[in-house]
Specification:
This protein is mainly alpha-helical. It has 21 helices and nine strands.
Length: about 775
């Protein structure tokens, strides 16, 4: 009765788990992986999606498998006969059925199972072979579910990793509070509104265009803008202040003293947003994000206004209540919450707009007419750049540069300005802030602080630093490095073309001078000969530099960006190889179940096959794990390089004299390091499937993807160097040959022209001379 209760409890759990298993492992019949498997194994693959498969072989592997299965069936019969014979003898000798060595329950059962597994079932394949295909097919379904989960996450969050928000919330709030105290302090001291806020204005070509003439600092809905500004500006210009001052003087200054303090005397806030192409799919979410950020700053400004008034009032009136010590921290926290919410909303909206474009493929970017989800896991490597662009674009879109300008000299020179700033300083020391270490409100004097260290590098280090910063400061550092490679290639091509044309022109002029001869040719020859030699040396120096730089540039511009695709394709090929091997070995694996050694349902000789089958099932999904992990690892490791490479090189070089060779050497070391990091990181595509089963006793299934990729890299680098060297030799020969031909033609033309001129002059002189 107790056992029955346990079965009744476990049965619904097993049924529900099997249903969940089916939902995430079912493969679409139109999946590209299944389509390609049909090329290899025939229509028997339809068994994976619930089909029956052909009665007769319709593939070459199926036809051969039919013979192999027949042979294995015979071999299984021999094993069964052997076990039966030895069992009878052991029974007679030891008095136990089958003897003490063989299990009377499991050995017969395993033999029956072995016979069932090796029998031909469909298309020439045995039950075990079809079982391996079915398991691989559900591995495809698991991989597709994993891929869709990744796309859903990117669609929902917009990034591969949480955005690195660089906004200093407290500094922004303190500068706004300083501007507010400046404004209200000057107006209080002058007893007149001489400074006012200009809430939100658009900065267009360094010209400030007012969105609204006056009113609250609440942000309006503005179109997509690159820069917006909030100012604390003078009410009067010089002329207006003079007129207002004269009128106030005549009436005895009943409303204070009108003055002009110039442009933005109490500072300004400028928000610089990332530029986008208007009219694109992300125009609406970007506009929404910018409006929310502007509104967050405007609300912060509004929240700090009352605090600024309290600080000014407490400065001029000792009986006034002390400013609220919690007001600043509350305003900062509200600002932080609204800002982060704006980023979160923007990431989701921007990513949804971009990823939704992939539903029917992305022919503009990837040349594919099949969508990312439709193609399935096998196409993951093709979407690397699209995923990185979405990540980089969203990371860039939500980055806002805030330029906070403090009070100007005109405000600082006000007689009472320092008094109000002292009041602000006193409040700043006693106000409550959020401690970054504990996250709790504490007195500002008790907050944790950390020192920053700065290092100065020499000229060469500065140039290398600029290259590294240009490459690695982007959200997608691989794209930044590729841009460095393209810049080097473009610069080299331009310089080489200019040097070639200059050398050709100089050598043509030299050969022409030699061909003309005479007084003119002799006088020009030293100059043209020197120019020809100089341009030729410059050309060859440039070719020599190309021999050093072009392989580096080609690796950065083309090989590095292609590394994830190369390793992904190798990983996919490795899975197909493993599956083909498993299908061919399946009849032999089935026969191993008939071996009598071991206890339990699975014999000792059959256990290893189940680990291989598990690897076939998990490998596609694990490859996707490795793919996304490699994308994140590359970003992290390149940030590590950015952190420690320059200090390490600076310490290594020391006081040595540095120049162009040092810069090229450092760039070469940097490139080699980056390629090694990329190879190691993207190697997770095959390393994760190869090694993860070690944790449950499986062996490392090394399919050789890394060595194949390394061979491709060697061929690529060697070919690049040979192309540059061969191009240099060819260019030199063509330059000299072309220059000689052009010089001969020019010299002949000049001689003919001189001869014709001489003949013409002779005839003219005969005509003019008296007979």
């Amino acid at each position: 009765m107790k056992t029955l209760k346990i079965i009744l409890i476990l049965l619904p759990l097993l049924l529900s788990s099997s249903g969940a298993f089916a939902s995430i492992t079912d493969a679409d019949p139109a999946d590209k992986s299944l389509e390609y498997l049909r090329y290899i194994f025939g229509s028997t693959v339809d068994v994976i999606t619930g089909g029956t498969g052909p009665a007769n072989p319709d593939s070459v592997l199926g036809a051969m498998s039919q013979i192999l299965n027949t042979g294995m069936l015979v071999f299984t019969g021999l094993i069964i006969g052997y076990v039966f014979l030895t069992g009878v003898l052991n029974s007679a000798h030891e008095g136990n059925p089958l003897g003490r060595m063989y299990s009377t329950m499991w050995v017969p059962l395993r033999m029956v199972v072995a016979l069932a597994l090796v029998l031909p079932f469909s298309g020439g394949y045995s039950t075990m072979q079809i079982g391996v295909m079915w398991l691989a097919g559900h591995g495809i379904g698991l991989a597709n579910s994993t891929w869709n989960a990744a796309l859903d996450h990117i669609t929902g969050t917009g990034t591969l990793y949480p955005p690195q928000i660089t906004v200093d919330y407290e500094n922004t709030a303190m500068r706004i509070l300083e501007s507010r105290v400046c404004m209200h302090g000057i107006n209080t001291a002058d007893r007149h509104i001489n400074v006012e806020e200009k809430p939100v204005e658009i900065v267009d070509d360094d010209q400030v265009v007012s969105v609204r003439s006056s009113g609250t600092t609440e942000a309006p809905l503005v179109p997509v803008q690159h820069r917006v500004m909030q100012r604390y500006d003078s009410v009067y210009g010089l002329a207006g202040a003079g007129i207002a001052y004269g009128a106030a003087w005549l009436s005895g200054f009943p409303n204070g003293i009108p003055r002009s303090y110039g442009s933005n005397p109490c500072g300004s806030i400028t928000l610089e947003f990332a530029e986008i192409d208007e009219g694109t799919a992300i125009d609406t979410p970007v506009r929404s994000f910018q409006n929310k950020v502007i509104a967050a700053h405007a609300q912060l400004d509004e929240d700090l206004d009352s605090l600024a008034r309290e600080i000014v009032l407490s400065t001029v009136d000792e009986t006034a209540p002390a400013p609220d010590q919690t007001a600043y921290n509350l305003a900062v926290n509200n600002f932080k919450t609204e800002y982060q919410k704006a980023i979160s909303d923007a990431l989701s909206e921007i990513a949804s707009a971009r990823v939704s474009k992939w539903a029917g493929g992305n022919p503009d970017a990837a040349g594919m007419t099949v969508g990312a989800r439709d193609a399935g896991w096998i196409s993951v490597g093709a979407w690397y750049w699209d995923l990185q662009r979405v990540n980089a674009e969203t990371q860039k879109m939500v980055s806002v540069k805030a330029e906070l300008v403090g009070p100007t000299e005109a405000a600082l020179e006000h007689d009472d300005y320092q008094t109000f700033m002292d009041g602000l300083a006193a409040y700043s020391q006693n106000m409550l802030v959020t401690d970054p270490a504990t996250g709790t409100p504490v007195n500002a004097m008790e907050r944790s602080t950390y020192a920053d260290d700065n290092a100065t590098l020499g000229f060469v280090m500065g140039r290398v630093e600029s290259v590294i910063n240009f490459a690695l400061s982007e959200p997608d550092p691989v794209a930044g490095l590729a841009n460095v490679g393209h810049v080097i290639i473009g610069t080299f091509e331009t310089a080489l073309t200019a040097a070639f044309v200059s050398d050709l022109a100089a050598c043509v002029a030299d050969d022409t001078s030699e061909a003309v001869g005479g007084l003119i040719g002799g006088a020009a020859r030293p100059v043209t000969s020197t120019l020809c030699r100089m341009t030729n040396k410059a050309l060859w120096s440039l070719v020599g530099a190309g021999l050093l730089l072009i392989p580096i540039a080609l690796m950065l511009a083309f090989y590095l960006p292609a590394t994830p695709m190369i390793l992904w394709i190798m990983g996919v090929a490795g899975w197909f190889v493993m599956l083909i091997e498993a299908v061919i070995a399946a009849p032999i694996w089935a026969v191993s179940h008939a071996m009598p050694e071991g206890s339990g349902f699975i014999g000792e000789r059959a256990k290893a096959g189940y680990m291989v089958a598990l690897s076939v099932f998990l490998r596609p999904a694990l490859a996707i794990f490795g793919f996304f992990a490699s994308m994140l690892l590359v970003i992290v490791m390149l940030k590590v390089v950015m952190l420690i490479f320059l200090p390490a090189m600076s310490g290594m070089i020391g006081d040595s004299i540095s120049g162009v060779v040092t810069a090229v050497a450092m760039l070469g070391i940097f490139t080699v390091l980056i390629i090694q990091i990329a190879h190691r990181a993207f190697g997770l595509i095959h390393e994760v499937p190869d090694k993860v089963l070690r944790y449950i006793g499986g062996g490392s299934e090394n399919l050789g993807e890394a060595s194949q990729e390394q061979q491709s890299r060697s061929v690529f680098v060697g070919g690049a160097a040979k192309v540059v060297g061969g191009a240099g030799h060819t260019m030199r020969d063509k330059t000299r040959g072309g220059a000689q031909s052009m010089a001969d033609a020019a010299g002949s033309g000049l001689k003919n022209a001189a001869g014709a001129a001489k003949t013409g002059m002779s005839r003219i002189s005969k005509m003019l001379s008296p007979k």
